[in-house]
Design goal:
single chain; elongated; five-stranded mixed sheet; alpha/beta; disordered N terminus; D-Maltodextrin-Binding Protein, domain 2
């Protein structure tokens, strides 16, 4: 794959995955907001040498949880590069299209992301920093929709798995697997079908003009995904 084949993501977003002890007093992950100083030092050095902010690749579209993690880890001055797949993200890193990549590695409900670990090993990347992001899912409809209208909810399969109790309580709503969360929100708003909803972040709803029908529909409030910053060795 060459640089020209790395297309920005338009309707696809990263999966979300983790394990271990995520909560302190039932709510706060022990690593929440932990940002390794190495990434700050590298960013500062790049700014000093080139006057340019670093390019940080992530899988997904604007509004994705991976984008939130990238902002938290790389800072607002970073140039974020959304890409379709994790493979594309690591290709961007290998080809020098991006200096850093933000990768989801584990989710407290769904467990580890095997593909992420495999690609980190295959490319021999350095893990520079980590960040644990609380994942709060919302049911998003197109403008004018109500929850009584909804007959299907689309999202990434792992996001759907994090909302099992919601589907148990609403058996009339069918689960529809999509490639991502934010992309699913964009798609249902574009379609304008009041019977179709998506599960994504409230920020994705605001970004694409969706209506928040219900918030905090994940099984647990202390639902976290751990992301790492990877750099070329």
């Amino acid at each position: 794959m060459n640089v020209n084949q790395l297309q920005p993501a338009t309707q696809k977003v990263a999966g979300f995955f983790f394990s271990g002890d995520f909560s302190v007093n039932g709510l706060v992950h022990p690593h929440l907001e932990r940002i390794d100083r190495a990434i700050d030092a590298l960013r500062a050095e790049r700014l000093r040498l080139t006057g340019a902010a670093p390019t940080v690749a992530y899988q997904g579209v604007p509004g994705a949880f991976s984008e939130d993690a990238a902002r938290a880890l790389a800072g607002d001055d970073a140039h974020l590069q959304p890409l379709d797949t994790l493979d594309d993200v690591f290709q961007a890193l290998s080809l020098g299209v991006a200096e850093f990549a933000v990768i989801p590695v584990e989710n407290s409900l769904a467990g580890p992301v095997p593909r992420a670990a495999e690609l980190i090993r295959r490319h021999g990347c350095r893990v520079m920093a980590e960040h644990s992001l609380r994942i709060a899912h919302a049911l998003i409809g197109c403008p004018g929709a109500t929850i009584t209208d909804v007959r299907s909810a689309s999202s990434h399969p792992v996001a759907l798995a994090q909302c099992r109790k919601f589907f148990e309580a609403h058996p009339q709503i069918a689960q529809v697997a999509a490639f991502d969360t934010a992309g699913a929100a964009a798609a249902i708003v574009c379609a304008g079908d009041v019977h179709a909803a998506a599960i994504a972040s409230t920020r994705a709803a605001a970004l694409y003009g969706g209506a928040i029908l219900l918030s905090e529909i994940q099984d647990r409030r202390d639902n976290f995904t751990r992301f790492v910053v990877a750099a070329k060795a």
